[in-house]
Amino acid sequence: MMTVFGLPTVTFAMVIATVLAGSLGMIHYLVVHKFMGKPFPGETGTGTETDADDQVVRDRWS
Known about the structure:
By secondary structure, this protein is mainly α.
């Protein structure tokens, strides 16, 4: 049976598919949610932190 890097061909294909799917997910997250500022479904706002958010965190931890 053929092997690629010591792995069976099917296992190697699954590794490649997993890496590609993860890369597409990361690219989507960065472009849509970070660069464009679109919120996740059910969230409001731009998804970026504000000074008010920082103040809430400071109040909770002090």
